Request: fold
Amino acid sequence: AQSVSQHNHHVILSEAASLELGCNYSYGGTVNLFWYVQYPGQHLQLLLKYFSGDPLVKGIKGFEAEFIKSKFSFNLRKPSVQWSDTAEYFCAVKAIYNQGGKLIFGQGTELSVKP
Amino acid sequence: GAVVSQHPSRVICKSGTSVKIECRSLDFQATTMFWYRQFPKKSLMLMATSNEGSKATYEQGVEKDKFLINHASLTLSTLTVTSAHPEDSSFYICSAREGRGAPYEQYFGPGTRLTVT
Reply:
C-alpha cells in the first residue's frame, strides 16, 4: 500500500530563513505529487503539484518543490519565509492506476515562523 | 479555483444521535467526492470515495454502517454519522473532483468540526 512520510513534525524558523520540508513516498509506479497548506482556521489549499515534465515545480507564494524519482522524494522549499507562512503543510501522493487513484496524505509539518 | 462548501461548519450532538454533514461543489460538477477525517495534529485520513450515483467505497477500518455516504447528485454528497459516540468527535473534510481520472484536481471544503458529548 502506498504511504507518505513527512520527516519533520514541527519546524520553527525566523523570518527570512530558508525552508525545506521533506516528503518521501512509497509506490513504485507513476504518481502525481502535491503540497497543500492549511493556514490556521482555514481549509486546505493547493500550493503546487507535479504531474509530469520538469521535476522542479513552482507554486504560489514563492514555494517550489523538486521531484526526485530515484529517491521517491518531493521536498518543498522556499528561499525566504515570512511570518505569514506559519501554517500546516501536507505532502500528498496519488498513485496512478485504473481510474485515477486516491490522494494519500503525509502526517503534516507544522511551520512556525517567528517575526 | 473551484469552491467546495460544507455545512454545518460546527456541530455538537449528544451521544447516540445521528448527524448529517453536507458537502457541495458550488461551481463545478463533482463526479467524485471524498470524505476525510482529521485528528488534532494529525494527517487527513481518507474514509471513503463516492462516485455520483454509485455506492461509496470505504477504506479499510471505516465502518460503512456508521458513516453513511450519499452522493445523489453531481453537486452534493452527504456524510451521516449514525449513533455518534464521543470517539467520533473529529474534523471531517470533504473533497470534490470534477472527473474520475488522474489529471483532475481535488478541491477541499472548509471542514466540519463534530463534537459528540
User: Anything to note?
Assistant: The interface with chain B takes residues 32, 36, 42-46, 49, 51, 90, 94, 96, 99-108, 110 of chain A (CB under 8 Å). Chain A is about 0% helix and 55% strand. Chain A has a mean pLDDT of 91.
